[in-house]
Amino acid sequence: MTHCAPEWSPRDGGCECGAIRFRLSAPPLFVHACHCHGCQRATGSAFILSMFVCVEDFQLSQGEPALTEVTGGSGEMRQSYHCMACGSLVFGTIRQRERVLRPGCFDQTDWFTVGAHIWTESKQPWLTLPDNTLAFPQSYARENIWPAEALARLVQQ
User: Fold this and answer.
1) Upper half-sphere CA count for residue 6 (Cβ side, 13 Å)
2) Number of CB atoms found within 10 A of residue 38's CB
3) Is the Cβ–Cβ distance between 114 and 100 less than 8 Å?
4) What is the dihedral of CA 100, 103, 108, 109, to 10 degrees?
5) Which of 97, 126, 135, 152 sits at 20 to 30 Å (Cα–Cα) from 51?
6) Architecture, CATH, for domain 11-148
């Protein structure tokens, strides 16, 4: 399953006001949509998109984001980085070797696909998920879902 365009070129993005800018220099590992109540609350929407990337493939090119730490629904401590000027949530960390980007922050957003929907047991009832995308009532084991090449890239770090 391909989760990004077959021919890769670096992708740029940033916060809403432009104070924070970043570049992704390699394809993402995986993208999923989380429908848990915590993500609904954090976004004020039906779900949040999370794009997992290798830490060395993500570079800040402008600005200094502010750090917020919260305990996620899984009990893990999450670090979120947002723009101090406009408040846009730009990226976060859960594990040391990865960054979790908010794909809506890219300058162009038509190049990635969602590989899975998680916590669908709490998704909004009016939202219909695509039939051709994996969906899980709660979460998943990444070693069973992520593409082999993505898992291999994590090990190589």
Assistant:
1) 1
2) 17
3) no
4) 140
5) 126
6) Alpha-Beta Complex (3.90)
Q: What distance, in Å, lies between the first and last C-alpha atoms of the chain?
A: 22
Residue-wise pLDDT tens for the chain (157 aa)? 444 545 789 999 999 999 999 999 999 999 999 999 988 988 899 999 999 999 999 999 999 999 998 776 667 778 899 999 999 999 998 777 899 999 999 999 999 999 999 999 999 999 999 999 999 999 999 999 999 999 999 887 6
pTM, to two decimals: 0.90
Amino acid at 121: E
Record the tokens describing residue 29, joined without a space: 């590992």
User: Sign (positive/negative) of CA torsion 145, 46, 119, 43?
Assistant: positive
- ∠ CA(19), CA(22), CA(25), 5° rounding? 170
Amino acid at 109: T
110-114 contact pairs (CB < 8 A, 24+) = 111/4, 111/5, 111/11, 112/3, 112/4, 112/28, 112/31, 112/51, 113/2, 113/3, 113/4, 113/31, 114/31, 114/32, 114/33, 114/49
**Helix/strand/coil for 1:** coil
